Amino acid sequence: MNTKKISAFLFSLTFVLTLFTGCTHNTNEAYKTTQAQLKKLLEQENLEKETRFAIINRIANNMLSIKDYSSLTLFLTDWVENHPDDTYNAYWLLIVAYAYLENDAEPIAEYYFERIINNYNDLMVQEKSIHFLSLQHLIQISSKPANRIEYFNQLINRFSEEVSQTELYYRLGLEYEKEGEWDLALKTYQLFLDQEDSSTIQIAGNPNAYRTAKQLIDFNNSPKDWTFESLDALVTAVKKAITSYNYRALDTYRSKVNFFAMSWRQDETDSNSQEKFSMHSFMFGNRIRYNAELDEMSSPTEAYLRTWGWSNYVNVWYLYFRKVNFPADPEIHGRWEWTGIYFGEKL
Question: What is the pTM of this model?
Answer without folding.
Answer: 0.82
